[in-house]
């Protein structure tokens, strides 16, 4: 029995089957345009020892595992590369801190060498002006230099009636004759 083309494509096999009509077909049954092929030669199973074909034993499992790991590592490397490229595209570019420090030192050295004298004069004048301003501001603040003896009834009234700029110090003592109170 000769297989039709469809049967051959679908994988039908004629192993261990002999047909009496097989000889008639090869002897010239009438179709001269049809090429004569040996059906056993066409239906040979593929050579499974070829490295491209899958293996079903333990070696095949190990080979599949290695192939899977290789593909996984390639995919991970590709994803990591994409992440790095994305980070480079979306990150702000700036100098590292060490370069900032070097640049700052460089500008300080160049400014010191060129404007040393004028900067010193300016800073001393500015310092004197600022000290004078602070002294004038302190002169306008009230000073009291007095010690008041308070009782519990007048304590809240005396503290609340002082100005907000005045610092109130409360000294609680037992003995009035102690001189340490007057030293403060």
From TrEMBL:
Protein name as it appears in the record: Phosducin domain-containing protein
Sequence similarity: Belongs to the phosducin family.
Ranges where the record places region Disordered: 18-59
Ranges where the Phosducin domain occurs: 55-175
Pfam family, one: Phosducin
